[in-house]
Request: fold
Amino acid sequence: MTAPTGPLGAVYDRGYRPYEDMLGGRRSAVLALYRASIRRALGMRRSWRQKVLPWSLLAIVTVPAIINVGVGYLTRDTPAEGFEFITYREYVGVSTALLLFVAVTAPDVMCPDRRHRVLPLIFARPLVGSDYVLAKVGAIATILSGFGFLPQVVLFVGQMLVSDAALDYFRDNAEVLWQVPLAVLLLAVYYAAIGVAAASLTSRRIVGGVAILALALVPSVVTGAVLSTNDVEQGAVAVLNLLALPIYLRDLIFLGHIDPESPLGGVSGGAVLAVVTYVVVLAIAFAILLLRYREPDA
Amino acid sequence: MAPVPAFAADSLTKVFPGGTTALDRLTVTVPQGSVGLVGANGAGKTTLFRLLLGLIRPNAGRVEVCGRPVAEDPIGVRSRLGFMPEHDCLPPDQTAQDLVATLGEMSGLPPRAARQRASDVLDLVGLDEARFRPIEGFSTGMRQRTKLAQALVADPELVLLDEPTAGLDPIGRQEMLALVSRLAGFGISVVLATHLLDDVQAVCDHVVMINAGQLVLAGPTDELLERPGTVRVDVGGANDALVQALTARQLRVSVLEDASLEVDSDGLGSDDTLNAVRDAVADLGLPLHALSTRHSSLDEVFLRQAGER
Reply:
């Protein structure tokens, strides 16, 4: 056996290297927190278990689009042509999966910071409480927008490709190119704000999740009960259904008025009532968040 | 031009709702380098850190960090600071690498540089191999090192360390102090808040002592340690005449268990007290078995100064 020749290796101390370039400021800090929150919500850089739920939900919300396009393709030469499993407007209302996503991810991006007392590390960086709120709500709203928008892209592109005249389809449905993003954005910001606000009130994820679901579902049940007690199907009280509120705004965007068949339909000034309530709910959510993070490590 | 102090507080006062006075007209200028901020639990060390970071506002007074006024520019101040809290503050399900890189980005590093520097500082603090493991499996020492790494990742001008050796075993404590003592060599000023005066004595070249929110004393560690201690003299038990002679010279004398005498040199200073004791022994013609001086430890300095207030 011959002895190895040459250097066997070296033990060395890499020491410390100063950072010579300019550091980013507050904007960089907020963007970094925003990116970190998105990664966390999507389970990135985490175990596979953390990835299952968000990506499963994305798959679930895409299923209607795939079915619609698939059936449209299979029946393109048959009398079933023109099959429409779900409309663009209705698709914005496929919100149960999005609500479930918020109930899982909003507490996951908020509660550990408080529970594990990470906030002092974050607020020792060049950002303030409102930046923290903006980054967290922005992260959840961005994912919800993505989850709400991407299936619609699949639907639109798929429908266009399976139609006989793609350009005609594009021209006939061009208005959805602004209607869908706007409606999805309003829905995403709404769910993100109330989800993050509810999650900010507790340091336990499970409590936060339950609180978000309760916040969405209890008013829905209560307003339904009030309407049925009065033996009516419609009434102004329906605007307090927090789950349905962004759906009324969606209808305003797509139809120009509240859907006459919705619980708020037929209510005089229903559209204004819906918009005002939407703004008030958002204002309350942001007020809670800003108060909660006014003094970071309190 | 005079060097910019690490921080300077002027009549800094913080009273919390409920009436607790955490800091009471604290005025002190702290130079760059390694500074020990010492005081008992509840002395106001952590409150001072929160004021330096701009996380809370003072009721009165002002404070500047690295030459920048905290009240007017808290964001600019935080860009130059690193902070290692006392309590556990690490998310258990993240890896050290991911956490430190993310916090580096939040400090203004570009993502790629943040990842690189996270690797470097984790290597520096001795977590090279463990940095891709979730923090929940870390020992107390590894957690403390991770906290130190996140404070250093963006190359701060000043790093605030709140009780960095808390909960560490003796070996871990020595390793942490060795790390802290290296920071000044990297051009990073350190303020080390602790109630363990031995830690300060080991690594700091400047000391600020506070008690009940007030400044007790501040100055270079060496100067504080050169403050008068005691002179010990053994004349074989023939103490009575010597006690009388020393008392007549206004010196405070106490007899120890082994029949030797301890003379407090607080009034004259170590050298003059030593000379006075030597002269008294010679004048009385006593046999001199032993004569020595002993400098104060920081504990003694702190206890004496705090007791005088």
Notes: Chain B has two domains: 7-224, 227-293. The two ends of chain B are 36 Å apart (CA to CA). The mean pLDDT of chain B is 88. Chain B touches chain A through 46 residues (CB under 8 Å).
